[in-house]
Amino acid sequence: MSSDHHQKAPRHHHVSKKMKALAKKSEESKHLRCSDCQRKISQKNLFRVSRYCVDCTSTSRMTIVCLECCVNYHNGHELLTEDSLHHNQLRTLTDLRKLRTKILDTSEEFDSRCEDIRSSGMEICGSLMAEKQTLLTYTLASIDDVIRRIESAPILFPPVLRTIKDEQSHNFGMLEKLGVQLEKSLISRKNTKPTSLTFIENMNESDLGCPVQSKGAGPSLNRSLSIRQSRVSLRGDRDDSLFHESIASLVRLMHQHPMCLQLDFHHSTVSSKDTVEQRKQKIMSCAHAATCMLEMDTQVSMLPIFADVLLNCFYQLNRLSKNKFVGDDKKAFRRVDIWKQVQTSYTELFGITAKHFPSHHPERVDILDDLAYLCHLYSDVADQGTVTICLIEAARARASDPTGLSEIEQQRTQERLELIDEHLTECRRLQKLLELRKTSKTKRRGGLKRLFGGCFMPQERVNESLVY
C-alpha cells in the first residue's frame, strides 16, 4: 500500500532559470516597446498609441515611438500612421508593376533590334545574347518574388521598400544597358562592330586560344559603353558568384600583367570553409592586386571589367564586416581599413576614366554611381571628402553639354544621376543620425556622472567639504 502511494505521489519538477527567462521573453514578445522610453505597446493598439518615425530609422527593424515621446523628442519629424505606411506600400507595388512592364518592353525592343541586325548581314555576339536571356530571366523572377512578398506582408517599412526598389532599378538598368549596345550596333557601319561587342568576342575567343582580327577601325570614344555582367545587388548576400566571375574574366584578359599572378593566387585561395576574417583578408588582397593593375595606359575597354571587380570585392567586404563584434586579432580588417582601400582604388579608377571620358559620358557616370553606392553602404565610415567629390562630379555632369550623346544615352545618364542623388542623400542622412546618436549617448553619460558623482567622492574630499 505504501509502495502504491509512493508511486502516485506528484512529482515536483524544478524550473531552471533558463526556462524562466525563455518564458518571460516569450511573454514580452507579445508587446512592442517605444524606442525612447521603452514603454510596452500592445500590438492590438499599435498605431493608436504610437507612430513610426522616418527620420530616426536607419535599419529595416520596426522602430516605433509612443505619442508622448513623439511630442517630447520627435517634434518636426516625419511621423507615419498605419494608413500612411499602407499607402506607401501600395505605391511601391504600383511602381514595381510599372517597372516590370518596362522590363518586358525593353526585352521586346532588344529582340527586334537583333532581327534588324541579322537582316542587315551583321552577326551578333553569342555571349551578349546569352547574357541578355540570363539577366531577363533573373530580373523577372526577382521582381515577381518581391511583388508577392509585398502583397502578402501586412506592413513593410520605408527602408525595406527603398532597398527593394533600388535593387530592381539596378536590374532594369543592366538590361537597358544591353539594349543600348544593340542600338549602337544598328547605327554602325556594316562589318564594323562596336567596341563592347568586339571586346566580348575577344574575351570568348581568348578562352579558345583563337586571336580575333579586327576588320575595321573602332568607333569614336564617346560610343564606347561598358557591359557589366550584372549588378552586385541582383543576387542574394550569400551568392558570391559575381565576385568569382568578374575576377576570372579579369585574369583571362590581363594574364600578361605582373600582378595578375598575385590576383589569381589570392582568388584561388578563397574557400567557403574560410572564417570571416580569413575571407576578408583574401578579398582585400584581391582588391589591392586589382588596383595595382590599373595604369594610366589601361585600355578603355578594360575599365568596365576593373569597375566590376572592385564593386564586387567591396560589396562582399561590406557584407562580411557588418558584424560589430571585433575579435582579439589585431590584424583584423576594420570597416575603416576597408574604406581606405575604397578611396585608393576609386582614386586610380576614376582618374583613368576622367582622362578618357567627359563628365556627362555614361561610362564616367556609371563609375561615379558605383562610388556613390559604396558611400551608401559604408556610410558609417565614409569620409566627407569623398561624398563631396561625388556631389561635385554629379553637378558637373548635369551642367556639361551632352553634345554627341544620343537620346537613349542622355536618358541613361539622367537615370544614373538620380540614383547617385538617392545614394548620397541616404548616406548623409545615416551619417547625421549616427552623429546624433553619439551626441545623445555622451549627454546621457555626462548626466549620470553628475547625478551619481557625489555618491562616490573620496572620503578626504568629503571631509574637506564639511563646514563646522
TrEMBL record:
Basic residues bias: start-end ranges: 8-22
Alphabetical list of InterPro entries matching this protein: DUF7758
Superkingdom of source: Eukaryota
Disordered: annotated segments: 1-22
Domain DUF7758: 264-378
Coiled-coil stretches noted in the UniProt entry, renumbered to this chain: none
Pfam families cross-referenced by the UniProt entry: DUF7758 (PF24944)
PANTHER family referenced in this protein's UniProt entry, alphabetically: KIF-BINDING PROTEIN (PTHR38624:SF1), PROTEIN CBG08397-RELATED (PTHR38624)
Protein name: DUF7758 domain-containing protein
Source organism: Caenorhabditis briggsae
